[in-house]
Request: fold
Amino acid sequence: MTAKIIDGKAIAAEFNAETRELAFRVAGEFYRQPGLAVVLVGDDPASQVYVRNKIRTSAETGIRSELHRLPATATTAEVLELVARLNADPAVDGILVQSPPPPQVDEAEVIRAIDPDKDVDCFSERNVGRLLIGHDSGFRPCTPWGVMELLRRSGCDPAGKHAVVVGRSNIVGKPMAALLMQKAAGANATVTVVHSGTVEPERYARQADILIAAIGRPNFVTGNWIKPGAVVIDVGINRVVDPDTGRSRLTGDVNFDEAVEIASAITPVPGGVGPMTVAVLMRNAVTAAMLHLRMCR
Ligand code: NDP
Reply:
């Protein structure tokens, strides 16, 4: 069997077109574009690429973005001062602080300082709590919601299926499990979460109808982890050096060449989950504007 490739770029383009329409509707009704503030602390090359991509996608989706750069030596207090200014700025609907900041910056404290009504990453305690109890804050956790959209738009309904999530981070694994298990249309899966403390994680993975890998280890999930016909979603983004060319390239957490022969559908890396993560961020920025402008009326 050769798996169907779930084209994250195409699905993100479709999703972004819908976001753009919403953004134009906001602009038409309230006479201003949704505003997104992006904070970049330091000069980590990968973070710079991610930020450039977010700024470019903002422009494509009708969102006004502003980039705030702080030096690599910035203190937590300096980042908090900037966040406080952005919280108070009525032209800023959404705030994102690119992760990870340099080690001297207390990221948890920075996240706590962002107004939950401007929390477009959906990292705040309020919005994560609302997600868990199924109370819609309007904000979606970007990567996990992106995965839900990939499943839905490629015709895979999680209802009644066994989903196994490999990884339990606060930004991917935990919210992913919470979304899949919601008692709601488009969710309703039975969920198992495995992590570094799990004995024989592949034993659980092999029972998955939907297998989601979010580990951060290149090619960690091999063919013997996958049940024939499973849907495999590879969240991992790992930079590796190609032994043949000596050049660096991106690869996922799943051994694609093995998995593609066993799964019924699979996301590639790059071009799978990544574009959807940014797409959901943009949607959150427009949602933030809608919530904010209605409140100001
Ligand atoms: P974290 O490092 O925060 O979490 C990794 C998780 O994998 C942890 O829960 C860890 O378990 C688990 N793990 C580690 N080793 C094993 C093992 N041997 N067996 C089973 N589980 C294991 O990473 P993130 O969740 O932030 O990211 C995961 C990957 O996804 C990374 O490659 C990252 O770059 C990528 N990513 C991609 C995004 C996208 O847009 N496509 C967005 C965000 C992340 P434990 O908790 O026990 O330590």
